[in-house]
Design the sequence.
């Protein structure tokens, strides 16, 4: 039995691909242990999916020079020593990292112990941990062809198999019924990603009377932090978190969404047209995540400050009544998707172990 340590966490962009790979590796008879922090999404999602989670202290990279910055090397050394002990104690055969606070110590520990290391970068613009890790291994996989870690292996973004299967396996009307929607009405899926999006939520709620008047219904996933109660009304269903994203995607004609790596990859893999509103804070990676899909014509890009009720009335509602345009967008989105990304990354990981054992 081959033993893998999968390191990553924080946001859905790190946790979701980690869990997709974990599921695939375990199905092949391997043992999988996950490494993360107590504060990230992994603390909830990893145990829910039935995998063991080992936690280490949250270790954010210092952005400015202060006392915390001076202490960072010591904290990194302590965390790395702890991961090194875990690798040896559990006889880990390979480390796979997805970025996030737990990754840097895992990368250094893998390098020090000469354990095969594979890195997967979910965003078009790589984070600090993966930039470091990419210097320690030749096994670097990326989700998007415009990644700034190139040259690397384009595997795509690992996504849950039920998402990939939803196009072929789900009747759209049945999916809507399961979610409390009208089976015959055109449907917009609204989601701000794993953490939600306040500005998107407010705009959609303000535009709701006009959307309803146009004969369109909304499935609105507001996020755990929104503080909005779940609600089920005619032509409007609101929930903090959706356990059935396969049904949600199958039910939709169009999505309004942030441009997180998981979301863009999931929508592309199944050909769901979308209006993408990149998160306005940070290094702007979300705009680049959607760049290839937008260039192909599989979606539209609008800035957070320009996404307004007027934009919904002027652009979104008319699009839903233009069946030919939606079909073209669907085909274009699907042309950029990599539905077998999990299998591609799994093959790379297993190959890294086999190659190392032959060396």
Sequence:
């Amino acid at each position: 039995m081959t033993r893998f340590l999968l390191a990553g966490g924080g946001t859905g962009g790190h946790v979701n691909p980690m869990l997709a790979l974990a599921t695939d590796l375990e199905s092949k008879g391997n043992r999988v242990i996950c490494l993360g922090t107590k504060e990230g999404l992994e603390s909830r999602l990893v145990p829910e999916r039935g995998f063991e989670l080992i936690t280490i202290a949250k270790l954010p990279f210092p952005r400015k020079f202060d006392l915390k910055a001076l202490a960072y090397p010591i904290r990194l050394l302590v965390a790395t020593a702890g991961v090194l002990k875990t690798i040896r104690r559990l006889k880990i055969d390979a480390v796979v990292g997805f970025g996030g606070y737990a990754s840097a110590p895992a990368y250094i520990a893998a390098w020090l112990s000469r354990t095969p290391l594979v890195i997967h970068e979910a965003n078009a613009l790589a984070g600090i941990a993966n930039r470091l890790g990419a210097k320690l291994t030749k096994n670097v996989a990326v989700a998007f062809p415009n990644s700034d870690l190139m040259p690397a292996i384009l595997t795509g973004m690992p996504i849950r198999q039920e998402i990939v299967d939803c196009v072929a396996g789900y009747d759209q009307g049945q999916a809507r019924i399961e979610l409390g929607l009208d089976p015959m009405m055109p449907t917009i899926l609204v989601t701000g990603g794993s953490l939600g999006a306040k500005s998107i939520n407010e705009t959609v709620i303000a535009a709701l009377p006009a959307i309803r008047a146009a004969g369109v219904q909304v499935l609105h996933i507001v996020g755990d932090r929104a503080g909005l109660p779940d609600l089920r009304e005619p032509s409007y269903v609101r929930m903090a978190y959706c356990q059935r994203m396969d049904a949600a995607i199958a039910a939709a004609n169009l999505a309004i969404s942030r441009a997180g790596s998981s979301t863009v990859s999931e929508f592309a893999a199944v050909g769901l047209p979308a209006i993408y509103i990149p998160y306005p804070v940070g290094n702007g990676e979300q705009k680049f995540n959607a760049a290839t899909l937008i260039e192909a014509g599989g979606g539209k890009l609008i800035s957070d400050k320009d996404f307004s009720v007027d934009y919904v009335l002027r652009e979104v509602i008319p699009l839903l009544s233009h069946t030919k345009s939606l079909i073209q967008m669907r085909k274009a989105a699907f042309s950029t998707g990599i539905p077998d990304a999990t299998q591609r990354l799994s093959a790379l990981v297993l190959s890294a172990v086999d190659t190392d054992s032959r060396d």
The chain has two domains: 3-157+340-358, 161-336. Residues 161-336 form a domain with the Rossmann fold fold (CATH 3.40.50.2000).
